[in-house]
Prior knowledge:
- With 448 residues, this protein is mainly β.
- It is 4% helix and 49% strand.
- It is built from three helices and 42 strands.
- The strands form eleven sheets. It has a five-stranded antiparallel beta sheet, covered by helices on one side.
- The longest helix is centred in the last third of the chain and has 7 residues, at 355-361.
- The radius of gyration is 25 Å and the shape is elongated.
- Residues 198-210 have low confidence and may be disordered.
- It comes from Paenibacillus glycanilyticus.
- InterPro entries: Cu_amine_oxidase-like_N, Mao_N_sf, Ran_GTPase-activating, RCC1/BLIP-II, Reg_chr_condens.
- Residues 333-439 form the Copper amine oxidase-like N-terminal domain.
- This is Copper amine oxidase-like N-terminal domain-containing protein.
Amino acid sequence: MAVKNDGTVWQWGDITTYRGAEGSETNLYALLPVQVAGLEDVISVAAGQLHSLALKKDGTVWTWGGNHEGQLGNGNHQSSAIAQKVEGLTNVIAVEADWTRSFAVKSDGTVWGWGGFYTEDSLGNFSSSEQPVKLPGLSDIVTISSGYGSFVALKKDGTVWQYQTQLQGIQDIIQVAVGAEYTYGLKKDGSVWYWGSDGEGLVNGVSVSEDSAPRLFEGVKDIVAIQASAGGPLMLRRDGTVWASGTNSGGQLGNGTWESSDVPVQVKGLKKITNIAAHGIGFRSMAIRADGTLWAWGGSFVGDGKKGSRTIPVGIASFPNQTLDQDPIFVEIDGNILQSDQPSVSIKNRTMVPLRAIMEALGAELTWNSSTSSITVKKGEITVKLTVGQKTAYVNDKKVTLDSPPALVNNNTVVPARFVSESLGAKVGWDEKGKTVVITTAELAQTS
Length: 448
């Protein structure tokens, strides 16, 4: 699943929900992303084996999918292909799910759960709930993670709790991720720590079987985000690269092979990544690049229109006919990567950028004359005029000859990045290593 900037939710895959005596019903079979009907203003999502959760910006939680253990939180075992609000649950700041369990963290630091997990009451009786119940012994929680039967909660003081028991020997944690056989914690200093969960496996060549004491994960540093698949950790470095290790059953190491690795390997073809995602009960991984594009790899149904697994990342289209370039030219404006439906392109060794996107980023007013294919840009006392296919442009009525004229690419108008930026008072540089046009507006330069 994925959440777009507009708050809509999109899903893909092969999911069958179960209705008990009524048999099974396939709610989703999609090789490409399809929109989840009835959901808007969503800020995050979580998914179990057969069910899904969405958190809206108003703090409410919505669920849909399989419900044979009450994981939808609607008070019964009736599955639903339509997202429904979980009643009585408000002020939620985070959601999580695994096989048939659902969890939510509220703004007051409490954790609530429902579905296929069991809690003990004061009389020593164990029971599960088809509606959210407050988990005892947890307070000041900011985030949680769950996977193959494991559950960890992170307190705002940086301590880690496994249900009601604090994990000793570790502190200053800012993120946690539960995998199939071991759990990971990211410290403030960018180091990664791991501890076993009575499973079998190797980390750095060392067995974690029946090992619960946290250990430093060697070979990685400057990590800013961590997730975990069923095979092992997925890590985002400060430099925008992505690294993984562990069992490679679905190809989720992203290194172009099916070989597992007990040391971190770099995921191929990814740079300027800002967010990563994986789940402790699956073998797929995803990443969002700074230009807003989504990339996925690992187990089948990654969202690129094919069933098979992918051992290197592939682009997942956000709309029909979207152009996804594995090695694009980036445009950075005042430290922010430009996002646009049409990526920047090189025409005759000149970087051409999508017209509307760069004008909005530069704070300029744009007028388009469709009958003449002419463009008028205004910012303050500066007026720039261009015409598609014409090398002649005007800056405050002064004639200028362009190396590359505005052009149409995939029915989108692109213009020369350096010319339009410098004409509007910005400074333009080129980062060869990062293939990035670096633009500094006059406004930022004045405040620096």
